[in-house]
Amino acid sequence: MQLVFATNNQNKVKEVQALVPAHIKLLNLKDINCTEEIPETTGTIEGNAKQKADYIKTHYGYDCFADDTGLEVDALNGAPGVDTAYYAGPERNANANMTKLLKALEDKPSRTAQFKTVIALHLNGDYYEFTGICRGEITTAQQGSDGFGYDPIFKAEGHENTFAQISLEDKNKIGHRGKAVQKLIAFLNNPS
Q1: 107 Cβ contact partners less than 8 Å away, ≥ 6 residues apart
Q2: Could you please report the per-residue DSSP string of 15-36?
Q3: What's the number of domains the chain is made of?
């Protein structure tokens, strides 16, 4: 089986590739010569995932999947949510995003949050969705140097270390994207 993962984020590709079984050949956007920026304009995590998958299916014809992920902070009414990557501006700068979030939480007693990933799959003419959620909390300062995005300030529920302090293997077991990808793989292994 061959599937396109509709992302230019090589960190996401690395996480997903570590989970995908050998019988699934994962292609990225470079492999199909997709160099344009794929729109993400629906205003929801689910809608953006579907929009990206639809774009690849419509313009390139490949069976594919796309994901969209948001960090939803309870004390901020779910923000940054669908704007997670652009929270501090259009540059998508992870350090600026984390700095803005930590500043927004300075006077908040609750730091609970969740990461939510939605995977949209186009396969053999049908459409499917898979969701992964990881509850946790935002730390008061960055900790760790691995991972990407908000990983240095997010601790999963029941864990002492941030995503940036644990291995990719451990992050994939407990994290939002890993949970969504596991559902995707279970479906691909038994699509009935």
Answers
A1: none
A2: HHHTTS-TTSEEE-TGGGT--S
A3: 1
Burial degree of 175 (CB within 10 A; 0-12, 13-18, 19+): buried
- State the pTM of this model: 0.92
Judge whether 170 counts as a catalytic residue.
Answer: no
What stretches of 69-192 show up as alpha helix (H) in DSSP?
94-104, 168-174, 176-189
Q: Which residues of 132-160 are buried (b: 16+ CB within 10 A; e: fewer)?
A: bebebbbbeebbeeebebbbbbbbbeebe
165 lies in which domain range? 2-189
Q: What is the pLDDT of residue 21?
A: 87
Instruction: Please identify which of the residues 54, 63, 67, 68 carries the catalytic annotation.
Output: 68
CA distances from 147 to 21, 58, 94, 172, 185 (A): 22, 32, 11, 11, 22
Helix (H, G, I), strand (E, B) or coil at 166: coil
Q: What is the pLDDT of residue 15?
A: 83
CA dihedral 49, 14, 17, 162 (to 10 degrees): -80
- Looking at the chain, the whole-number percentage of residues with pLDDT higher than 70 is 99
**With 90 as the cut, is the pLDDT of residue 22 above it?**
no
What is the CATH classification number for the domain harbouring 39? 3.90.950.10
Predicted confidence at residue 123, as pLDDT, reads 95
